[in-house]
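Morning run. Coffee first, then this:
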Amino acid sequence: MNERATTVEGVRRTNLAEVLRLVHHSGPRSRAVITGETGLNRSTVSDLVGRLVQAGLVEEHEPDPTRRVGRPSPVVAPSPGVVAIGVNPEIDAVEIGAVALGGSVRERVRVPVEQPDVATVVEIVAGVVAGWRGGALAGCRIEGIGVAVPGLVRASDGVVRFAPHLQWRDADIAGPLVTALGIDVVVGNDASLGARAERLFGAAREHEDVVYLNGGASGIGGGLILHGQLIGGVGGYAGEWGQTAASVADAADRRADGGVLEDEVNRARLVQAAGLVAPDDTELRAAVAESPSEALTAETARQRRILTATLGNAVNVLNPAMIVLGGFLAILRDLDPQAFDGEVRRRALAASAEGLEISAAALGADRLLIGAADAAFERLLADPLS
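And here it is:
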């Protein structure tokens, strides 16, 4: 192939990736809108969409004739038959979801299991995916698997260096999953993948400077997005908010001498105060909102004081446009969002807090699965015809 042909094909593949990424992350849109957003000409967009349709990656639908005057162009939408599998192993369950292009969760299951090891997670995922392939996902194209792990994940090869609550150390989960299922696998930190999901599909879609904190059974993790880019650090370990020193102003609020943030702002302490056994976030939210227990009321107030102090520090250091809270951290805020947000601003410099928005994660319990699946789609999005 001559140099010019190679260059032309390279440009075409780049343009295909731009169009597919646009409809995946931003939703269905007409050819005319794609033309305007990409800056490509109409005939080029028509050719690109045709190739993506032929590859089974997008579908074209007739537009609503009541919405426009004149001859409207067809609407291009991501194909629901192209999916990635998101996996989130936690200390009390393994959650698995099938996420279609466009970020919609087609199937979801939570398998309760105590502190699963790698072999157990692989066995569960393989069984669930096999069942879906013969049923709900029959005829679908499974593009990859993304695993969101509550621990330190090395960016270069996806090895889980340390997931303390799962007791995984230097664990390879990608290799066994590839062997079991024959599908490409990517592995990342759960909170970083949650931040990715909220930035692309959720509460932070309109912002480029975002602090995300996620609270789960395994502790508190987080993600940092600056100028639209997810920051991983030199090894991929950035965002370990739970391991920072807890901001405890009143000694009476401390529960763990020398403890870090996740020792003090802690889901297990809430669960215990609520008198529950292994609840999911929906059950915990209901208990926190409705329980007349003085012990639970006192515990939620204590944890809110420490969390708002931590977030005030984050505002001073990073000056984000938005803070997004996931998991039980969102439950703490939602008890009284106005008071919570006001306390964060009170603890921050006035200039740094100007225009600050604070929000619960918009994707709810699906955020980690969507983020993991989006990471698994990355190779396809980079080169749709690879």
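Residues 294-318 form the longest helix (25 residues). Good start to the day.
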